[in-house]
Design a protein that fits this description.
By secondary structure, this protein is α/β, with parallel strands linked by helices. The chain is 36% helix and 21% strand. The radius of gyration is 21 Å and the shape is globular.
Length: 290
């Protein structure tokens, strides 16, 4: 099994990197081939929204390390992904990577239908339990590129390396590596989305909720004054991440939206003209940061 460990942290040998390495140790022990990559060692630029990768089917024009990363990711059978929380959510560099999804989106959906299932585990690190929305947002990355999540854990330790002082944290990370190799899913806690491990939901009505990350619906079961959320027996099939639904989204919506846009472009250009009068209002700092 080829395993790629991805660390989205600037702190070398900080909590995130250490926990990813701990999970990697379990994979190495099982005989897996493991490689590690720090996203912060690579150069990534933001998606410009030009849509050439979809509309023209050409290679992304941005010259950075994104193609290198996606090639490594798609060559792997399993992923270990870790990110710290700076303020409520994963590190910004991971969001840049997610936003470049379109350059490989259509290929991923096609490959998933034809080939074997790929697996991922994810690790979030943070200082305080009630100051993060980490896991469902972190898990958008592996889910969007066609990997099913076998386990997802938060590790709480404020200072760099302090996660090693908690044996339970180390054991959790190692268990994730074992789950990845064996393909044995570590279930999400009760009341959490079984696919993205999120615990925030849209209330559709008094009897049904929806996971906004997975678009997975669950029924609210009330009994003796308490309530819990019941999800379908095969939840992944009901999510937006299922390969058939991803393929439908890429071809039936993303690609299909380009045709009416081109037809409406002359009208849009006319409607834009009055807004150009406001271009004199832009402000910029006097100093340059180049």
């Amino acid at each position: 099994m080829k395993v790629l460990g991805i660390v989205a942290s600037y702190r070398k040998n900080g909590n995130t990197e250490l926990m990813v390495k701990e999970a990697a140790k379990a994979c190495i022990k099982s005989g897996s081939q493991v490689e590690l990559v720090r996203l912060t060692d690579l150069v990534f630029k933001e998606c410009t929204g030009c849509m050439s990768c979809i509309g023209k089917g050409v290679k992304c024009h941005i010259n950075d390390d994104m193609e290198f990363l996606f090639e490594k990711v798609m060559d792997a059978d399993g992923l270990i992904i870790g990110s710290p929380v700076y303020f409520l959510s994963p590190l910004g560099i991971l969001k840049i990577v997610i936003d470049r999804f379109l350059m490989v989106g259509s290929k991923i959906a096609k490959n998933l239908i034809e080939n074997k299932i790929k697996r991922a585990v994810t690790i979030g690190t943070a200082g305080l339990k009630n100051w993060n929305l980490q896991l469902p947002l972190l898990n958008i990355f592996p889910l969007s590129i066609g990997f099913r999540i076998m386990g997802s854990e938060m590790i709480f330790a404020p200072g760099p390396g302090e996660a090693l002082l908690n044996p339970e944290s180390v054991q959790k990370a190692y268990a994730l590596g074992k789950a990845l190799v064996k393909g044995e899913k570590i279930p999400a806690p009760e009341g959490f989305c079984p696919v993205c491990y999120g615990n925030f939901f849209e209330f559709l009505d008094s009897e049904e909720v929806n996971c906004p990350v997975c678009n997975l619906k669950g029924k609210i079961l009330k009994d003796n004054g308490s309530s819990k959320i019941i999800f379908p027996e095969s939840p992944f099939k009901e999510t937006r991440w299922h390969p058939l639904k991803m393929k439908e989204h890429m071809e039936g919506w993303v690609k299909a939206s380009i045709i009416p846009f081109k037809e409406n472009l002359p009208k849009i250009k006319e409607l834009r003209k009055p807004y150009k009068e406001l271009d004199s209002l832009w402000i910029n700092p006097k100093t340059s940061h180049d």
